[in-house]
Amino acid sequence: MTPVIEVQNLTKTYPDGTQAVRSISFHVEEGEIFGFLGPNGAGKSTTIKMLITLLRKTSGDMRIMGLDVDANPDAVRRLIGYAAQEVGVDDDLTARENLLLQGELFHMDRNTLHRRTDELLNLMDLAGDAHRPAGSFSGGMRKRLDLATGLIHQPRVLFLDEPTTGLDPQNRANLWVYLERLNKQENLTIFLTTHYMEEADKLCQRLAIIDQGQIKTIGSPRQLKQEIGGDVIILRFANNGQSVAQQSEQAQTVLGDAPFISGIDRFDEGLNVYTRNGGEAVADVLRLLDARGLRVAQLSLSNPSLDDVFLKHTGSKIRDEAPMQNWRNVRGGPFGRRR
Fold first, then answer.
1. Which domain, by its residues, includes 236?
2. Co-location of 210 and 236 in the same domain
3. Would the pTM of this model clear 0.90, i.e. be above it?
4. Deepest in the core among 141, 160, 267, 279, taking most CB within 10 A?
5. CATH no. for residue 280?
6. How far, in Å, CA of 18 to CA of 303, rounded?
């Protein structure tokens, strides 16, 4: 079966030389929730904008439902839906009016449009508020309405750029429920970007870890965590005459030859130590460090998480913020919200 999305060696380089996306390749199967997990500035939004025809690629190949994105942009737009990080509904219009307006922009048949509007209002639990102005909605309701406007024309693929940014934890969890409902009830293929580990772990059947414009690894959350193997002992050091970096470097040297340790990764505050039996290894780790005069400020033991996977493949913890590399990377950018 042909994948719904096929990307080969996709690259985006801006005129100033900034390489936002660096020869990435991946595919997305029909009915799959596929994610890009990475920090702000990693190339996630740039990739989505190229796929939805809002940004020209530098090189590479992009296909959606077998259609070349560059050669058939109008046909591709009819097959996809898109919701940006910022909500794009008209606050002066009611929920129903927002959906009807969006459907008219797609030149939908009137009867089909009204039927589809009713379906989406029910699906998003907005039917009881259909005649209220969107400006009176809560943040979670506005986000659900925004999603509905991107689905009015029954797209085959939905692109979501950081869909839950700005939502409180409860509304974020509620939105996950609606996305899973869309995926199952409408057999909708969803491509989302996120920098939230929990979101990627909860929603994505497969995900790609992307950093500095490059895909580092692809797999299911479970598979990626299993590849680390065993348990993770997280060690943090405090400034006590020596810098944290110096202590981490010394600790890595001390522990590097221990036969019960399968791997070590450094991050800003300390080390991730991987071992098959963390409960037994903790005492041995502390004993080895104590013998070299290294004092641990904080220790925790856990099963591997996506945060550990990200550190393993990128050499750093995920960053919440990154400096803007190019004005075109601003979410929404110089383009319209949805075409």
1. 230-303
2. no
3. no
4. 160
5. 3.30.70.920
6. 38
